[in-house]
């Protein structure tokens, strides 16, 4: 009873080793399946990580109870504590020195070369 499976394995091995069209098709099929099996989890992991980062950047946690909620809400949906205003996504804070004080004003002067 052990004879037919051994012969079958030998035939498959011969099919893979010999450069025949059927062997190539089988190898391509196995290679493609292995690639898909390896690539799909990696792709899903990458997409999940990107999605998690995007979600994390849009979430803010309550200082009182720690419940995560979407950025932009003024009150915590769980406990009702007013959320701190996060300025990371808003306009940058005003600088201490006005920009007009640190820029160099260049004024045009008329130069008389023929005098
Ligand atoms: Zn809360």
* Radius of gyration over all CA atoms, rounded: 34 Å
Mean pLDDT: 82
Structural class, judged by helices and strands? mainly alpha
Low-pLDDT residue spans: none
Order of helices and strands: HHEEH
Q: What's the end-to-end separation, in Å?
A: 118 Å
What spatial order of strands do you see in the largest sheet?
A: 1-2
Bound molecules: zinc ion
The proportion of residues forming helix, as a percent range, comes to 40-55%
Q: Looking at the structure, what is the overall shape?
A: elongated
Strand content: 5-15%
Q: What count of helical segments does DSSP give?
A: 3
Mind summarizing the main beta sheet?
Answer: 2 strands, antiparallel
The number of E-state strands comes to 2
